[in-house]
Here is the input.
Amino acid sequence: MQIGEVCSREVVYCDRGASVVEVAKLMRNHHVGDLIVAESRDGTLVPVGVVTDRDLVVKVLAEAVSAEVLTAGDLMTRHLVTVDESDSVYEAIRRMRDEGIRRLPVLGANGALVGVLSADDVTELLAEELGTLARIAPRQSVLEKKALPPLKE
Here is the structure.
């Protein structure tokens, strides 16, 4: 299955200059734990970083830094890991594992931001697939009973 079939297409994003307070409000208002930091390049929205709720805690609150002096650009990841919407879900799982990250910006064919894939999205998909597998044995039994009449004793 391709990432484009699983990822969230409703991306909450901000630009590098967004204040930490703006970032926190966007997360709260959209009920998300991360924001994609993006910029427009020739009319295309391109991701340049990610800010997570953990970044807010570890880099602002724990350090007792004034929220007024930092921006999304100060907090965002410097090493951005992305996936293409045509990549497989298993490729995304491998990248998440190798990089130790839970969220991946998803890019379209032209490099534009088209979605976000989270570990929760992948977990939900895998849970559905496991549920489907779990229903095979009972279904097989029902079909067998219909296809094979009882033997005479």
User: Anything to note?
Assistant: The radius of gyration is 22 Å. The longest strand covers residues 44-52. The chain has six helices and six strands.
